[in-house]
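To: structure desk
From: M.T.
Subject: fold request, one chain
Message: Could you run this one when you get a chance? Sequence is below, nothing fancy, just the single chain.
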Amino acid sequence: MKVDGVHYRSLWWNESDAALEIIDQRWLPHEFVTQQLGSLQDYATAIYELRVRGAPLIGATAAYGVAFAMQQEPTDRAFEEAYKVFHATRPTAINLKWALDRARAVVIPLAEAERFPAALQFAHDLADADVETNRMIGVHGLEIIREIAAGKPAGEPVNLLTHCNAGWIATVDWGTATSPMYHAHDAGISIHTWVDETRPRNQGSLTSWELGSHGIPHTYIVDNAGGHLMQHGQVDMVIVGTDRTTRAGDVCNKIGTYLKALAAKANGVPFYVALPSSTIDWTVRDGRKEIPIEERDGREISHIFWGKNAVGEVTEVQITPDGVQVANPAFDVTPAGLVTGLITERGVCEASEEALAAMFPDLAG
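Reply: Done. Structure tokens follow.
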């Protein structure tokens, strides 16, 4: 997608420096900052501190991190150390382990002299595949929006609601939940998106920044406004992303997603999840019992990261009493029974083990 008229991916390989460049998302939407990753710790820190975030982008970053490690020292020991360091950064998003496992299958059988170029090519291929996967999610999601639009009075927009940021900045390009929005807008379908702020990190501001840059009408709302809007018929469809989906269709996503799904069910609003097949964990069936939920630093609750003050400085602000105890579970699990459908790169299916296995017979086994 474009920033100030210039096309960017969320990460790219700098050929002249032989290093990965990322958009440091901590500063968005106030400042557009890029960073070159020059050490193994840089890669790990970028993932843990949400300089890069979103399950697909985390996986792509880790793939390039493996290439970096093999560039420095192409030994089994160095690979396993990189695997361990990266895997420990974000335990919930399955794309991280998925990318690391695939990198291991590519790299370890090779002679040491062949490992860096092979790992780098694997990372390039993974990034390119992510772009095409997300484009196809948009193509299939477009048809759902088109069908909703056909049933509305002429000129009335399709009102979407999304939670967290599952946009191009959370993938290599296009995004998952936002991809159908971009496709619908570009196809001339009138849409409007309600954007949840998504505390505690306020990732909704990233979605707002994205949609605004693309010219898509949207309104920024507090997390708890969604149910009210659904009660009053102001939401036609909820669409969110996911960090891990079980083989039975349970969806693990940013904390607060479950409450949106409950409100949607109570008000007859379709609730869709946009996901690449790489976020399906075929080893897990019961999301509530089996998916580890990341507990993040309480400072994300006690402080706002980052805000612009009255004189235009980007800073953090404490909003709680000194010394207060906080809890910060980063994700929750939405049971498959609350999900209307899963929008994947191969099409739309119901959230069930049978439907997912039929959509991905080559992966389900």
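Reply (cont.): Residues 2-129 form a domain with the Four Helix Bundle (Hemerythrin (Met), subunit A) fold (CATH 1.20.120.420). Let me know if you need anything else for the meeting.
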